[in-house]
Amino acid sequence: MTAPFLSEAEALRDDLVAVRRDLHMHPELGFQELRTARIVAEKLGALGYEVQTGVGQTGVVGLLQGGLPGGRTVLLRFDMDALPVHEENDVSYRSQTPGVMHACGHDAHVAIGIGVATLLARHRERLPGTIKLMFQPAEEGLGGAKAMIADGLLESPRPDVALGLHVASDQDLGSAVVRPGAMMAASDALTIVVRGKGGHGAHPDQTVDAVMVGSQIVVALQSIVARNLCPEDTGVVTIGAFLAGNAGNVIAETAELRGTIRSFEPPVRELLHRRVREVATGVAATYGATAEVTIRIGVDATVNAPKPTTVLYEATAAVLGADHIDTTYRTTGGEDFSAVLARVPGSYFFIGSRSDERTGAPHHNPRFDIDERCLPQGVAILCAAALRCLDGEAE
């Protein structure tokens, strides 16, 4: 049934592109996806799905009961939110909302989701079980997946398998990344407030310079990955913001450092958290200052279960060819679909969307765009994988 899915998905390409471009022109930030959710709900309802709206504030769930006996439920997830980025692409479908843009491809995900919904509804009588579509708000750091889970996403019925995808501008069109284990990293937010003693810039001996102390902390933090972490493990400690002072002749009394901590394995996560606290407070004490360290737990690592990943690999190979699947790549980017995969066995994969320089801009970049030929490929892969999971191949 994989080949029919591919040909049928290709036949939907114009419709998928139209949906994607409409959403691209009207991006909505996390928990503000009212227009997007309305469009999704209307399309699912017209296809015969049982539709739930307002799940996790602005999320939409669609249920489709197959026509063959079977008690399994497969969940398919598509995120909907945009980013606070001002688009710089000169295209006909450019964002019409200043300062807001689909700079990560979630518009493409929704379009793929509508395509999946269309084909699975078309083949409803051949489905042995239930399809549960998860159109999720607020993936970009606001906890939309957990909000939907709190609203009963994983109940009535409970999914047996969960699948998801992300377009990838660092992967070529016609390729994919499918691998078991930790695919994306845990992501935690870091804030360090350094408190010293302010004073006149001409008399540093009378002060405890928070800028100098903060600078030493920034440098010292880089020793954690270099010298405390096993070379075979992966971790990231990044300081992305340094806020201090407002005059060139005044020594700042306080400085605030903001950053991120990334890891794949829980023991590494614990090590990084502990050493960040020890290094920051220790360096501050050395210079007569104090450092208050706050680590806000973000998303967990996105971990793919072995059997669902095997099913997803086989479905992807049937569409793209096994030679076009990377089984080794992973990224220290974070993804809140991890909250679903921590509760339901499943798999998450990347589908290539890059074909030239224009479609190769990084995610979250104001020039991000995709080659829309990836849309039917994503539809075909997810439809084929979902059917195989309903047949019990992921167990």
Helix and strand content put the structural class at alpha/beta
**Total number of strands:** 16
The CATH architecture category of the largest domain equals 3-Layer(aba) Sandwich
Major sheet: order of its strands? 1-2-4-3-5-16-6-15
Q: What's the gyration radius in Å?
A: 23 Å
Give, in order, the helices and strands: HHHEEEHEHEEEEEHEEEHEEHEHEH
Please report the distance between the alpha carbons of the first and last residues: 20 Å
CATH topology of the largest domain: Aminopeptidase
- Domains, number: 2
Q: What's the rounded overall pLDDT mean?
A: 97
Uncertain runs = none
CATH superfamily assignment of the largest domain?
Zn peptidases
Question: How would you sum up this structure, described in words?
Answer:
The protein folds into two domains: 2-183 and 301-390, Aminopeptidase; 186-299, Alpha-Beta Plaits (2-Layer Sandwich). The mean pLDDT is 97. It starts with a helix and ends in a 5-residue tail after the last helix. By secondary structure, it is of the alpha/beta class. It has ten helices and 16 strands.
